[in-house]
Amino acid sequence: MSRSAIGLLAGAHLLFGCVPPGMDDDVTVLSGGRLIDGTGAPAIEDAVVVMGGGRILAAGAAGTVEIPASADRTIDVAGKTIMPGMIEGNSHIIFDGQSNHPAYFAGRYRDYYEIGARNLYASLMQGITTSRDTMDPLEEMIRLREDVESGVIAGSRLFTSGTILNYPGVYRMFDDPTDSVFEGIPPEGVEYAKAAMVLPVRDGTHGREIVADYAERGADFIKVSSYSGPLNEPPELSTEALTEIVEEAHARGLRVTTHTSSIESIVAVLDAGVDAMEHPTLVGQEEVGAEGEFPDELVQRFVDQNVYSVPLMVVREVYVTYYEDPGRLDDPWFIRHAPADMVQEAREWVARDIAEGPEALEDHRAGYELGRLNLAKLIAAGAPIAMGTDKGTRLNFHESGNHVRELEIYTELGMTPMEAIVSATLRGAELLGMEDELGTIEAGKLADVIVVYGNPLENIRALREVDLVFKEGVRYR
After folding, report:
1. Would the pLDDT of 85 be above 50?
2. Distance from C-alpha of 286 to C-alpha of 392, rounded to nearest angstrom
3. What is the pTM of this model?
4. Which helix (H) or strand (E) holds 132?
5. Residues 350-397: pLDDT tens digits?
6. How many Å is the Cα radius of gyration of the chain?
7. Mean pLDDT, the chain, as a whole number?
8. 179 vs 75, which has greater pLDDT?
9. Separation of first and last alpha carbons in the chain
């Protein structure tokens, strides 16, 4: 998008040209609230947090924190909870909950930037101050990241991997531009979407070349698929090729995460020395059953190698939720503010699946329950876990607040509420290698701070009720 085009959108003040109250060198004091600092330490009642120059200046119990006489504003948050801005560990910023993927990507190829800007803003308003995008076109992601940083748009801070290397999910999606699904869509839309979303890797040498290119272009981390699927298209990468990709990324200061959907693919990337895995607990349908349950020795490898898991439990739970009760797609609790056309598409898609018989629901439920079992094993072993939801994927709308449901699932499977909050704060920062700047409320760190009504340690759902949002000390909500 040209700068002149951005100017045409400036009237949409919630997204573009946002001028939040206060400047980042102002000093703001939050007083009287409960402080959860993100480290896992016990909450502090009647706390004070001082922000200035975009950073945390001080935080602690009232009476132990000096409040500058020059403070520009003091906000009384008694009865509420102060905590770090949350970090979404797995999002798809230009996805919108769509069900018809090829038509969506091809038909909206001119709108990727605008969709991304809207979704980054939606995330910020939910208290997500940082978003880790794990599959979207690199060019658009870098533009969005830069425009958030410069203040052209208001939204969550963005980290991006660009397109997944060797991902099977979109292959053959755009092979036939005459397919009826593309009716009315210009051929250039099909070609643009294919070029943006498809990145096959021939071998380890080719993988190194792509990593080098992505590093030069500004990717924040690398994501590679270690799993292909039933048709083996593109061909699954060998462990040796995965190792070459990891080595090249690490040499360039980039962390590596992976798309995994089988026990075999998990073992391969553990052998390759990756830093993280997306949805490792949600194995593919062909492994649902005893063969998909994590053996104890596999669980221990996550712990011993300090490999982070981003579980994405809600990505499969939403299928169970809406297939069991399609009426929930009319309930504002689940779809509030979601795009009306995407919600209607979801209603029609779910209705078609249900009409074909109970198998779809049974398959989704079986996969989800196996995922819960595997995640419970990782939690019990103390493996590092960072909150992520796959936000934007089918039925998983950016506006739905599913990150809170994700945390609730963690508590159901063995985490304390405090541990679940840490998974969305400090662990998310560690996942990004940004723990020195993000994830906790400590003096010197960036002032990403939110205030929520109530006490999430008593009811994690309190995180849905966000009152205030600060990013680098600037108030956006």
Report:
1. yes
2. 25
3. 0.94
4. strand 128-133
5. 999 999 999 999 999 999 999 999 999 999 999 999 999 999 999 999
6. 22
7. 93
8. 75
9. 27
On whether the CB atoms of residues 187 and 177 are closer than 8 A, the answer is yes
Over residues 25-32, the mean pLDDT reads 93
Residue-wise DSSP of 191-211: HHHHHHH-----SHHHHHHHH
pLDDT, residue 24, reads 52
Cα–Cα distance, 106 to 196 (Å, whole number): 10
pLDDT tens across 226-261, in order? Answer: 998 778 889 999 999 999 999 999 999 999 999 999
- Specify the DSSP class assigned to residue 168: S
**Nearest in space to 267 (alpha carbons), one of 222, 235, 312, 236:** 236
Q: Which two tokens stand for residue 373?
A: 């079992």
Rounded-to-integer distance, Cα 414 and Cα 403, Å: 17
Specify the pairing of strand 86-91 against strand 128-133. parallel
Sole residue written with tokens 């905590």: 83
> Two tokens at 468?
């205030």
- The SS3 assignment for 109 reads coil
Residues 124, 414: Cα–Cα separation, whole Å: 28
Paired with 224 in beta bridges are 165, 258
For 181-254, list the strands marked E by DSSP.
Answer: 221-225
Residues facing residue 446 across a β-bridge: 55
Task: State which amino acid sits at residue 471.
Answer: K
Give the CA distances from residue 251 to residues 211, 246, 255, 444, in Å, rounded to whole numbers and listed in that order. 10, 8, 10, 29
Condensed to tens digits (0 to 9), the pLDDT of residues 413-468 reads 999 999 999 999 999 999 999 999 999 999 999 999 999 999 999 999 999 999 99
Strands (E), 250-407: 255-259, 276-278, 308-310
| pLDDT tens-digit series, residues 114-158 | 999 999 999 999 999 999 999 999 999 999 999 999 999 999 999
User: Is 212 exposed, middle or buried (CB count within 10 Å of its CB: 0-12, 13-18, 19+)?
Assistant: middle
Is the pLDDT reported for residue 13 higher than 70?
no
Cis peptide preceding 339, ω within 30 of 0:
no
Given CA atoms 381, 386, 389, 390 in this order, what sign does their dihedral have? negative
> The tokens 């009504």 sit on which residue?
453
Cα 15 to its chain centre, rounded Å, is 20
